[in-house]
Design goal:
32% of the residues lie in helices and 25% in strands. The strands form 6 sheets. The chain has a 6-stranded mixed β-sheet. Strands 18-21-22-15-23-24 form a 6-stranded mixed β-sheet, with helices on both faces. A hairpin with a 2-residue loop joins strand 19 and strand 20 (380-381). It is globular and about 75 Å long.
Amino acid sequence: MFQRQTPTPTPPLLVMRGIDKSFGGSPALRGAEFTLGRGEVHALIGQNGAGKSTLIKVLTGYHRRDAGLVEFDGQPFEVHSPHAAQAAGISTIYQEINLVGLRSVAENICLGREPRRFGLLDWRAMHAEARRLLGRFSIDVDVRRPLGSLPTATQQMVAIARAIGFKAKLVIMDEPTSSLDDREVEVLFDVIRQIRADGVSVVFVSHKLDELYAVCDRVTIMRDGTTVRSGPMSEIGKLELVATMLGRELTAVARQGATAFGAKAAHAAGEVLAVDQLAAGPRVRDVSLAVGAGEIVGMAGLLGAGRTETVRVVFGADPAAGGSMRYGGQPFRPTEPADAIARGIGFCTEDRKIEGIVPELSVRENLTLALLPHLTKAGIVDEAEQRRIVERFIQRLGVKCQSPEQPIRELSGGNQQKVLLARWLCMNPKLLILDEPTRGIDVGAKAEIQALIGELAKDGLAVLMVSSEVEEIIEGSDRAYVLRDGQTVAELTGQDLNETELLAAMAHGAHDSREYGHG
């Protein structure tokens, strides 16, 4: 009798198991797993700090893993440089274009694999190869032009063409559409489908959920350095995808508060800030919001939604390109942070180590940095007044330090954050902007800071709070705006400010019954 043979499963192209990686004792990856099929487009997603970039850098030889196994094309795999990874068949396209602007398009595409004739560069072959690869993107440019003279989107396409030109078995695309318009995105997706049909695998990193469903076969979700889910893209809905990224049960409704915020304000005591259809750069396209005195207004959204970019414009750190703002009932368009500070606006940045603290300066110097012009007369600082202010705010906020002269870099993350809060509070602000105020600090300090924010609002301070934590937005905000792809897509308040509505708006945009309009 004839017996049908069961086809042998095709072995995966890439297997990463139990990957650990730490930096300075802090784990970035903890037993991370990733499996990629041959001829597969695989989404790799997660919030900022989830471990996506570190996993890619371990694979491509930028970082050496501390533990774990990597197999590529059926063989144990370990390289010690991105160049070696490229030679082994792995090409990476980074969000930041890392090509040579002064060299021609053709030179950039063929860099490292230049065709030669009689030992000399074969310019004719190089130009023909560049035209052929760019032709797949329907791009017709003079390949002899310097790359830096072309628009950013075209430069991104050149970077992609270069990666494909290496005849890679695996192409890693890290936010490849960040500088492309809708037509260029569709062209890119067509190329991805072409190379998938040729048997090339693609790892696609993007925060734009619609793109994942348009082009990816499977998805791996990371959170806090670990792999939390992997499976077919078609089997995971958008809401479920967002909930998994954030570590939340979709239908969970907390019976007890998960944060230390106080009671919500009954009503705002007057408009402090109003933003209408704000536009700035590629990440802020149409943002509207309002904040009243004594009110905590939350800003929610996935990574890349435009939250940080929006508050930077409000603070004058980046210029506005369109829309309008009112502050205290008056037209407001700051051209630099000093303008916002002079009007009574404080801003605790998302990255306190890079943009917040000055590591080598003392607690005293960091705390009074913004106040310093007010403490100085004829170029001399009133040190007695400075000490009084510092001691008062160290006591008020419960900053744990050996003395005001201790370098701030020696403090814990939570105490550093308290010093940054004190820096603005000593200015008696009317509006305090907080970008991820409790990120990267321990549970105890987190509760103290949340309670403090609640107390400040109760005393009449207007607070605009950006947070990636669902509980922080729901329990800490009187109202919340949801941003998606640079636009305000929902305003939630009262009973509508709950997990289901918030996640729905983050995943899909405006919720069915909560359409956000500008009036």
